[in-house]
């Protein structure tokens, strides 16, 4: 075989062998399969609560549920809603409230009844009758902080177990519909003053304050929010109160 021809054959064989080697290497290279990504299952943690929960509701007609059925008032609705999601827990409810009570009346009633100081939850809604009876605002300034301190002591001394609700606005009810515009505005402004003081007191004490006044200010545009007496909130209005209270109550009981 001629030298020149040998060189050509060697070159061709070399190219062929390199090609085979490259193909063989490629075939041996491990391939990582692309697997579909499955997101982790999201589970809502369920925090157990005590087997027995004691709830104390302090207030006036808005707590006792004037002109609505017994199970329609907001403390009873709250208890019912809690029972629905915690069926294994025994819920007891005590109400210290009467239509027409002022802060002075509520203080006197608490002192007379002398309830235990072991409540897991205490709600407080008071002040409309101070305004309605034209009591000097200084009475509320003195007595609301006293009531808040008392509510905390009744809630096992834990401020986190207390919720204060703002005062509803009766200027937006059929009862006050015939009042002059100036008089209705005066009522609303005075109740705003009461609620602002209560909220600031709660902030200073580290207590939760929940405003529901705006719900009651829909009373003239939505008659379903007013009870049959034309003055107090209806079952539906109280249900809307619960919509705002309930998340905070669950946090309290799960803490």
TrEMBL record:
It comes from the Bacteria. The keyword Signal applies. Residues 1-26 form the signal peptide. InterPro entries: SGNH_hydro, SGNH_hydro_sf. GO terms for molecular function: hydrolase activity, acting on ester bonds. Keywords: Signal. The keyword NADP does not apply. Residues 57-239 form the SGNH hydrolase-type esterase domain. This is Lysophospholipase. It comes from Flavobacterium hibernum.
